[in-house]
Amino acid sequence: MDLSAIADNWRTLAALSAPAECAAVVKANAYGLGIDKVAPALWRVGARTFFVAHLKEAQQLRGLLPDATIYALNGLLPGTAGLFAASDIRPVLGSAPEIGEWSDYCRDNSVSLPAAIHVDTGMHRLGIALEEAARLSETYRMLGFTPSLIMSHLACADTPGHVLTARQRLVFADVVQRFPRVKASLANSAGTLMGREFRFDLVRPGIFLYGGVAITGVPPLRPVVRLEAKVIQVSTAPAGETVGYGATERLSRDSRLATVHIGYADGFFRAAGSTDARKGAEAVLAGRRCPLVGRISMDLATLDITDLAPDAVMRGDTAVFLGEGITVDELAQKAGTIGYEVLTALGGRYLRRYIGG
């Protein structure tokens, strides 16, 4: 895990976004990379506002960054207002009951605490409806709390030219002008690239910080994760034999194979395996890409090393599954998923080593 790369990626996005503030999304344990390492590294280079998913993550982050502004995206569960207040965490309020509960808590305790208000502009996942936002705009100054941010979330920003993206921006701009002097935020990683009109006062990059690419045309970002596993056996098999569970791939030639200590229990997706009909992921061994052959099992994967020199690979050598030109997004494509899932699925059996930062 290259903390200096994460820091550089934030700097790149912050420079692109200015004068809008560049926050950092560190939910799901900083996308699986370790919030205890990632968040302080981001703070050191200038990130001051952070977004997590829920209260437990926010409480952990508060222990790491006592002075940060922290928002919890999943909002306010019943009876948790006191816990948010005790840790100076800002809930993102996405329903009338949440707004009411936070307002009542503030009134009952004679405090006016900050919170974000989430408006649904077309994703239909979280957020108050546009009609509710319009009504709230007429009375929000009488709330018991201080609205510190009006926000929404783009549903299709990673699909260039999608009609919903432009529509969401227009709808959100209309909502924002109803809440004068309240900061506004719409752009995620991909939205940050869509021009000044999408950035408003604050952008919320996530996947771009961690070396994933949610959309083409991104500024130069550094890869963050290098994933390695050890070869535990080198063997041979004749043409016509099959490899792995289910006999899904038959060897077309006499082959040399390297069995590697990595599998789906480590978050290396079974769907990234190879069959006769579809080639799977690759790894770098001895400086050269080698294809997976057969299914990935719980603890093991097998690479075809036939094209390497006979003595190029030995037991104990290292195969690189991310790095050496293999990106998070390439591996995701081979597994039929997205880079977000590749990162957040990285398992607990890996030895994690942090560099830089």
Automatic annotation (TrEMBL):
Residue positions binding substrate? R125, M298
What is the name of this protein? Alanine racemase
- Protein function: Catalyzes the interconversion of L-alanine and D-alanine. May also act on other amino acids.
The family annotation for this protein states:
Belongs to the alanine racemase family.
Any one GO MF term held by the record is:
alanine racemase activity
Residue ranges of coiled coil: none
The active site consists of K27 (proton acceptor), Y245 (proton acceptor)
Gene3D superfamilies named in the record: Alanine racemase, Lyase, Ornithine Decarboxylase, Chain A, domain 1
Essential cofactor(s) = pyridoxal 5'-phosphate
Taxonomy, superkingdom: Bacteria
Provide the reaction this enzyme catalyses. Answer: L-alanine = D-alanine
In the record, N6-(pyridoxal phosphate)lysine modifications are located at K27
Under PANTHER family, the record lists:
ALANINE RACEMASE, ALANINE RACEMASE, CATABOLIC-RELATED
Which CDD domains is this protein grouped with? PLPDE_III_AR
Report the pathway entry: Amino-acid biosynthesis; D-alanine biosynthesis; D-alanine from L-alanine: step 1/1
Q: Which UniProt keywords apply?
A: Isomerase, Pyridoxal phosphate
Q: Is Zinc set as a keyword in this record?
A: no
Which lineage?
Bacteria, Pseudomonadati, Pseudomonadota, Alphaproteobacteria, Hyphomicrobiales
Q: Which InterPro entries does the UniProt record give?
A: Ala_racemase, Ala_racemase/Decarboxylase_C, Ala_racemase_C, Ala_racemase_N, Ala_racemase_pyridoxalP-BS, PLP-binding_barrel
